[in-house]
Amino acid sequence: MIEVKNLYFKYDEKFILKNINIEIKEGSFTAIIGANGSGKTTLAKHFNALLLPTKGDVIVDGLNTKKYEINARKKVGFVFQNFEDQMVHSIVEEDIAFGLENLELENNEIIDIVEKTLNKLKIKNIEKDNVNMISSGQKQLVALAGVLAMKPKYIVFDEPTTMLDINNKKNIMSIMKKLNKKDKITVILITNILSDLKYADNVILIKKGTVIFDGKKSMLNKKILKEAGLNA
Amino acid sequence: MLKKLSFGQYTYKNSIIHSLDSRLKIIYVLMTSILIFLIDDFLKTAIFSFFIVIVVLLSKIEIKNLIKSLRPFFFIFIFIFLMYLIFSRNKLEQGIFTLWRFLMLITMSLILTFTTTISNMVIAIEKLIKPLKILKIKPRNIAVMISITIRFIPAMFLNLERLKEAMLARLVNFKKFKHIKLIMLTLLDRMFKSASNLSNAMQSRLYNENAESHKILKLGKYDYLSVAFISIFIFVLVVY
């Protein structure tokens, strides 16, 4: 479980996040929604210790990110919004192996995991391709493969559908659903598109750095969404 | 456009030179580059030239591609030749000799880039500089730096192209300095943002400077044969 307790985050003398108290349960599909600039990504970056709280705590499976930065990061994978900037190596399979090399796994194990991940995401056909030459949808999948290969317990998807066409959107959404339902990975989806909430169980609504709704998707109503600056 | 901007000229061919270990190929290029400048007589230069012809034939590189890659250097060669011709005509023979050595040097490097993938070269560099760990230099950092450069330079040019088009659509005149400055600053801003995103992503994927590439480079039959061949070649040129 990811617990966020009394979280405040200050940047440039301004509080971006104020008194956040939420819990993300294991195995859930949680969507964090809010208008642009509401602090969604800033909050998500606290989950894998890319950002540390100015005040308060973020605890991942009992590990406080302030103290156990690396261990928390091992548990929480992050697929960035600008997935093009997420890739370090030019060749698809080498980029997927990057995180595994950092974990200092055995060579054979790395080759095996890369192979399985490529097959899982159905991108085996582009394993030797240059990441600059593949389509946006494929780049998104390679970015996800790089994260998935590291076998995280939680995966944050930061606005994964904004740069994709309708077919790729559908594909990434169904992959997220499968990862959650079949592989029991906790999915945390950051979005401002209401149609992306299709597979979410829980929703956390953020407005100007504070949580204004935290509950089951079915409890969401037009009034709350409007208050958050989102059109229902 | 990205195809044009991509690094390297590697083309797959089923050749002995292609199959050689990339570490060995880098070492051979370094060694023969030094050797080129150590030989000083006509016979040895002729032997060396013959050696390069053999390697080119073994590598199955298309001659027209090789010449195409050498073409940008021809202007420099002509310039140097003209300088010798105008200012030191008495040393013209030495000038031709120097130009020929440069040509051999460039051809050797081209054979390396034509027969080795960029990623194999990066891995080879990472493995070769491993002893520098004693000096607290991390091979992983250097290898990742090269990889990132290779990965992002084409992306930078693509960004520049997109910016140029967007600005032209808004009637920007690139003959004006302020507009050139504008495009450069915008590009720089984008590149810094990309660098910041990449840094976050690397941190997120637990970047570890003590880690190594998972690719294993193993010496094969042809590698051992090449070591023997190169050793004899160097021995003949240096001793005799």
List the helices and strands and how they pair.
The complex is a heterodimer of chains A (232) and B (240).
Chain A: E1 2-11, E2 14-24, E3 29-34, H1 40-47, E4 55-60, E5 63-64, H2 69-75, E6 76-79, H3 92-102, H4 107-120, H5 136-148, E7 154-158, H6 166-181, E8 186-191, E9 202-207, E10 210-216, H7 222-227
Parallel strand pairs in A: 3-8, 3-9, 6-7, 7-8
Antiparallel strand pairs in A: 1-2, 1-4, 4-5, 9-10
Helix pairs in contact in A: 3-4, 3-5
Chain B: H1 2-5, H2 16-19, H3 22-38, H4 42-59, H5 63-87, H6 92-115, H7 118-128, H8 139-169, H9 177-204, H10 221-239
What would you note in describing this structure?
- The complex is a heterodimer of chains A (232) and B (240).
- By secondary structure, chain A is α/β, with parallel strands linked by helices.
- Helix content of chain A is 32%, strand content 27%.
- Chain A has one domain: Rossmann fold (3-Layer(aba) Sandwich), CATH 3.40.50.
- In chain A, strands 6-7-8-3-9-10 form a 6-stranded mixed beta sheet, sandwiched between helices.
- Chain A is globular, with a radius of gyration of 17 Å.
- The model of chain A has no long low-confidence stretch (mean pLDDT 92).
- In chain B, helix 3 runs parallel beside helix 10, helix 4 runs parallel beside helix 6 and helix 8 crosses helix 9.
- Chain B contains 10 helices and no strands.
- Chain B starts with a helix and ends with a helix.
- The longest helix of chain B has 31 residues.
- Chain B folds into 2 domains: 152 residues, no CATH class; 66 residues, no CATH class.
- At the A-B interface, helix 2, helix 3 and helix 4 of A face helix 8 and helix 9 of B.
